[in-house]
Amino acid sequence: MSKTSKTQFAILGLLSIGPMSGYGMRQVMQHSTSYFWSESDGQLYPTLSKLAAKGLIECKPKADKNTRDKKEYSITKSGLTELKKWLAQKPETQTVRNELMLKLFFSANVNPETSIEHFQTYRYELKSLLNQLASTEQQLSHEEKQSSHYPYWKLTIEYGLLISQAKMQWCDLVIDTLQKITSRELS
Amino acid sequence: MSKTSKTQFAILGLLSIGPMSGYGMRQVMQHSTSYFWSESDGQLYPTLSKLAAKGLIECKPKADKNTRDKKEYSITKSGLTELKKWLAQKPETQTVRNELMLKLFFSANVNPETSIEHFQTYRYELKSLLNQLASTEQQLSHEEKQSSHYPYWKLTIEYGLLISQAKMQWCDLVIDTLQKITSRELS
DNA sequence: TCGCACATGTAACGCGTTACATGATTAC
DNA sequence: GTAATCATGTAACGCGTTACATGTGCGA
Lengths: 187, 187
What we know:
By secondary structure, chain A is mostly helical. Helices cover 66% and strands 5% of the residues of chain A.
């Protein structure tokens, strides 16, 4: 049943915040949602055209300034209705595919040192995500505190922080366990 | 670069544990890895044929008993080499797409009650996953303690437990925050 | 003037899900 | 006898990524 692409709703959602260009959407997603949602160009631009054709969004080419190719989109009434309809529906529980976990599950086939390296890299990646989230949280509490979106955005950041911290703790457990296997193998 | 399907490695990995039928793989995945990895029939069976054609796995039709259609596969030497090669490679950091989070991010557009319902459902789902993981952990410590896979399988379960608990705590935070918004709106 | 960020799009291609198709065996 | 489980497969279809294509404006 997960047939219909969610790209359209990601776009409608972003435009519910305010008018924006396709490029602007990419920027926002890269800086704010990348740890739980992202879109590629190949999805984004064609979907913008489709939504405009359906009348869910409108395009106002910025001819007023200096006629760059820039296209600014905004959400229409029917677009907002569609978005609200989707938001009211129960989120589908998606099938997960975590390669790191799949590898760990079969890692009895390789020496523990190999796995330890992977997890040290992973730990480092988690750390930089945590730093990034912390600075986004700071920024948010300064710039958006009055917005109706604020509590919701704050909750998503909270998710990122809590889950990443939990993953990091688990990472430490993994590294510790694997190191014990190594020393047991040596003795 | 994430072009090559990981289905083949999931299969090779399962066969590194022991000989198994396609159906058997489905069972194992459903019971042991579904919270971090799953395969659909449409991926599984064609990939089995491809791997057999490449000589990475072998098929021994169980003609000895009562000639059911059952096919038992086992991994070959070159298959094991391929698996180890993959395990040694750094896991790719995959792009995440979490619909629950995407909805939350835009939920200022709907009333908080709607979101609260979604999160109560989600919380319930997390709870049953936790129960399932706890019983799997019990089973594992009784049946597989001697296996070289044991520490690795235990770590994956630990992941499931820790992350699900963190998600549940966050869930409580979300529900609590949304309820405060509701009561503020009423006053 | 060179390279980067801005800015929009298209085409190819493989992946993965869903639904369909088929049939045997077992338990009630 | 009939429903559920065991068991294997195929075909259609859309989704999403990657790479390609193109061009502007700006700062070093």
